[in-house]
Write a structure and sequence with these properties.
single chain; 2 domains; alpha/beta; 2-enoyl-CoA Hydratase, Chain A, domain 1; 4-stranded parallel sheet; 370 residues; 6-stranded mixed sheet
Length: 370
């Protein structure tokens, strides 16, 4: 019988991406059955974890039994781990319970489903990664960097990856599938600001487009949060969205309009409201409701407190479009829920509802009128 130590060279070989002549990743995703490593000697488990941590492919652990202390090095090294059963608090950030991502108020794809096995969740993940392997790999590697960096360098890494992918074939395919952008004009003032003593209320106010995060809305939000930062007498900042959704994500009709990708990188850094929200986070409360998609999830995760209305849902669909999150999500979301659960949300684009978001720590409270 082959020992686990003898399998380390095979594991190292499996963890090579490999590239086709056109640069297409041959092995962007590697599954790691972790139950068989449960009784591995600590030195062997540590060696395997080192291989996994340094791997370029997305590495996904599969766990049918409960996590054990022996598995901790592999759980922390993997991109994420899918687990069949309840997860103890000690391993919560490292493991994605399949019951959370496929039951109750969670939709897999666009359809709510019942309990599924680890294998079904793994198949879902494989489908998503194989659609956009370049973007998925970029996202997986980005998430290994951004949680360890200060905010500005982390945002710079995200902006670089995002801008690079704007010129890639996967985003080009998404643009072709989307078709010609529509000529739609939002309000001249897409953000409303009001003050009551030391409280500043900022309302995303383009309900006709579900508060899509357009360049105009970005600039107006930046101006509002800069005011909140500059005025020390403003001690309570509330951010809300008008209409049925807090924010439906980036304005899709503006996607693909950048012709200078270096300029796009610099704009994404310099004109980022989320940088300011991060600096004033202790006094910022977001009241989220309805759809919080893409930027609608990424930006609010920088806030000191998030109150979500029942029925709210959160999703990060950028990898499906051939991109990575571009509104700070690779920085803000892992800070709240860990890079492992953030990886599931980003790689699949699947939504989670308010109760799962609360359980994971993406929001701080679920309350009517949130």
């Amino acid at each position: 019988m082959t020992s686990l130590a003898d399998e380390l060279p095979r594991l190292a070989a499996e963890l090579e991406v490999g590239l086709s002549p056109s640069g297409e990743p041959v092995r962007p995703l590697v599954f790691l059955p972790l139950d068989r490593w449960r009784d591995a000697p600590s030195s062997v488990a540590a060696h395997a974890a080192g291989l996994v941590a340094g791997a370029l492919p997305i590495t996904v652990g599969l766990l049918t039994g409960p996590p054990s202390p022996t598995l901790e090095p592999l759980l922390t090294a993997a991109t994420l781990t899918l687990a069949a059963g309840p997860v103890p608090d000690t391993a919560a950030r490292w493991v994605v319970p399949v019951g959370d991502v496929a039951a109750g108020d969670v939709a897999v794809g666009d359809v709510a489903v019942g309990d599924v096995a680890v294998e079904d969740a793994a198949a879902r993940l494989r489908t998503c990664v194989e659609r956009s392997p370049r973007a998925a790999l970029a996202c997986g590697q980005l998430l290994r960097q951004t949680p360890e960096l200060p905010t500005t360098p982390a945002l710079a890494a995200e902006a670089a990856a995002y801008s690079l992918l704007l010129g890639g074939p996967e985003f080009g395919r998404w643009l072709a599938e989307r078709g010609a952008p529509r000529d739609r004009h939002g309000p001249e003032q897409p953000v409303r600001v009001s003050r009551d003593g030391g409280q500043l209320t900022i309302v995303l106010d383009d309900p006709g487009r579900r508060n899509a995060f357009s360049a105009r809305l970005r600039e107006a939000l930046l101006e509002a949060v800069q005011l909140a930062e500059a005025d020390e007498t403003l001690t309570d900042v509330r951010i809300r969205g008008a209409g049925a959704a807090f924010c439906s994500g980036g304005d899709l009709d503006e996607f693909g309009t950048a012709t200078d990708l270096v300029a796009a990188y610099l704009v994404r850094l310099e004109r980022a409201p989320w940088r300011v929200i991060d600096r004033i986070a202790p006094k910022v409360t977001v009241h989220a409701h309805g759809a919080c998609i893409g930027a609608g999830t990424e930006i609010i995760a920088f806030a000191g407190r998030i109150i979500a209305a029942p029925g709210s849902f959160f999703a990060l669909p950028e990898v499906r479009m051939g991109l990575v999150p571009g509104a700070g999500g690779s920085v803000s979301v892992p800070r709240r829920i860990g890079r492992w659960r953030a990886a599931w949300l980003m790689l699949t684009g699947d939504r989670i509802g308010a109760e799962v978001a609360l359980r994971w720590g993406l929001v701080d409270e679920v309350a009517a009128g949130g």
